[in-house]
Amino acid sequence: MASEVLMPQMGESISEGTLTKWHKKVGDKVEREEILFEISTDKVDTEIPSPASGVLSKILFEEGATVAVNSVVAILEESGAGASAAPAAAAPAKSAVPPPPVAATSAAATSATPAPAASGNASTPASNAGQAGEGERVLSSPLVRKMASELGVDLSKVEGSGDSGRINRADLLSYLEKGGKGSTGPGQSTPSPLVASAASQATSAAKTAPGAAIESVGGALGGLVDGVRVERVPMTNMRKKIAEHMVMSKRTSPHVTSIIEVDLQKIVDLREKMKNKFEATHGFKLSFMPFFMHAALEAIKVVPIVNASVDGDTVVYKKDINLGIAVALDWGLIVPVVKNATERSFVGLARELGNLADKARGKKLAPDDVKGGTFSISNYGGFGTIIGQPIINQPQVAIMGLGAMAKKPVVINDAIAIRTCCYVVLTFDHRVIDGSDSGKFLSTVKTTLENWTLPII
User: Fold this and answer.
1) Are 457 and 446 in contact (CB under 8 A)?
2) Which end of the chain is more exposed for a tag (fewer CB within 10 A), N or C?
3) Three-state SS string across 256-307, please?
4) CA 100 → CA 46, 290, 363, distances in Å?
């Protein structure tokens, strides 16, 4: 009996993921919940466990492939019978990646089955760019396939220098530099202006490089640009998806940011007094974030519009409050979600936050851990930043930012005192949230923190 292994959906706005590493080879035995492969999206880099026990009989996508969510990426058999010793020759048609909701689209979205070369359809060269002839399969990365599609280059004519003839970016530029042609139409060999421009740029870079032409180092391109030594490194899939999502958010929502200063001395003193007892009682350290999470929950109760979304000309109010907390990693930014936050105690918020942060750093986040966020918090203050203007995490309509905590002189009852303060900001979608709403929200956060009464143990 065969079991299909699917590309999981790591968030409601995610339509694809890049398969970054296989932990098993065809023919290997796999236990249920054993790590099978790793994926990367704009929301998360994570390890995916096997859905069942068996023998890995087929791998349908190699490492580096961008795959639509819910597509079959591998087949597990109860026994090793029929196991293929190599990856499948072609991806099924249903695995073609659909265009994401933003302008930038992965080259993996091209058709999985090349159209006949004799077709008179004007769109044939563009849709088949980067594809081999019938019966062949070109090994290349999604980045190279996208470049080839944009430049109208047939990758079957490019000689690859990587493993098993895999074509990298340097190979493609070298092909153009040597006079390689892009496809401008059926039977035509004249390069398009775009191809000519790319070839010209590659030649120019080679001429300005000292000694030899452009050097290839692990897919990165080195050389001289305007007399400056440079190294070109393709964005990771996570970085590309973050970029797409951020640009889409700025295009979708008119962003406005309000700022308020908060006196945190009472919180600082309380944490200092209780942190050892808290850790001894609950088994984990007490950070400042749960205080801000509770304050945000109180503010959302006062201004529920910040916990909404926009659907056309309709405002969708969310009855549940799911807090997305940004976690910075060495390889990008991830926003795991604390579900049903209002139903959790202070300790419950702190514990769930710690669990999610540990899972994120260990690449153990499950698809459900990054789904369903209704309001987000970004703590850029941990890096010393005083004030920031975070971008809204669509389809949400607001995000709270926390600046660095610092001691400063303040006036209290006409006397100067040294207090620990920080700036809290609210970036909001001005289509549905007004300045008065943001003022109420931030003043509630301020009041909650400066007049803290909630027990923390």
Assistant:
1) no
2) N
3) EEEEEEEECHHHHHHHHHHHHHHHHHHCCCCCCHHHHHHHHHHHHHHCHHHH
4) 20, 34, 24
Catalytic: which of 320, 358, 368, 434?
434
Q: Residue 11 corresponds to which tokens in the numbers above?
A: 């968030």
Higher confidence at residue 350 or residue 173? Answer: 350
The pairs formed by 130-137 with CB atoms below 8 angstroms and a separation of 24 or more are 130/154, 130/155, 131/155, 131/156, 132/156, 137/89, 137/90
pLDDT digits (tens, 9 = 90+) for 244-273: 889 999 999 999 999 999 999 999 999 999
Contact by Cβ (8 Å): 25, 74: no
- Nearest Cα to Cα of residue 49 among 320, 367, 429, 390: 367
Q: Identify the three-state secondary structure at position 339.
A: coil
Give backbone dihedrals phi and psi of 362, rounded to 5 degrees, phi first: -95, 10
Query: Which of 262, 266, 271, 265 lies closest to 289, judged by CA?
Result: 271
The catalytically annotated residue of 154, 226, 430, 437 is 430
What domains can you pick out in the chain, each with its CATH number?
2-95 (2.40.50.100), 107-235 (no CATH), 253-450 (3.30.559.10)
Annotated active-site residue 226? The verdict is no
| Residue 280: other Cβ atoms inside 10 A | 9
Q: Which amino acid is at 276?
A: N
Residue 65 has pLDDT above 60, yes or no: yes
What's the distance, CA 447 to chain centroid?
Answer: 35
Q: Judge whether 340 and 347 are in contact, CB under 8 Å.
A: no
12 falls in which pLDDT band (50, 70, 90)? low
At 145-163, the pLDDT tens digits run: 767 776 778 888 888 876 5
294 a catalytic residue: no
Q: What are phi and psi of 18, to 5 degrees?
A: -100, 130
pLDDT in tens, 15-31: 778 888 999 999 999 98
pLDDT exceeds 80 at position 290 = yes
pLDDT, tens digit, 9 for 90 and up, residues 220-239? 466 788 888 988 888 877 78
